[in-house]
Amino acid sequence: MTDLIDCIKFIKDGQAKLPSFGETLGVGCPRRSAIKKMAEDIIKSLPKARIQERGDISIVSIMGVRTTSTGGIDGALRNWIAAAYRKLDQTGSIQTSGERENVR
How far apart are the C-alpha atoms of 53 and 100, rounded to whole Å? Predict the structure, then answer.
């Protein structure tokens, strides 16, 4: 069974593989294409994962944790990770910041 910690690790692993921004920031940006591919992988791999773009707002919902961002899917995923950590902190699943660092 997948839990929040597994989801965090999956997303962080995907983010670590993203190319840097480089000089091309427009539609043909390799990073933008890689983020779209990562979003597809998340939707296929994680339970009840939804990632949407509505106008200039990106929405990520995974395992009952929902976040938004005007900074694109990448920003919404970063916000989701922070919200997932907050949920884990509230439930007592991660007791110390050292444990949080071990979630890679």
Answer: 29
Q: What Cα–Cα distance (Å) separates residue 62 from each residue in 24, 27, 36, 98?
A: 30, 27, 16, 24
Q: Beta partners for 60? A: 51, 67
What residue type is 52 in one-letter code?
Q
Give the dihedral of Cα atoms 42, 43, 47, 50; nearest 10 deg.
110
pTM of structure: 0.81
Q: What is the mean pLDDT of each run of 10 residues along the chain (104 residues)?
A: 84 91 64 92 94 96 96 95 92 59 52
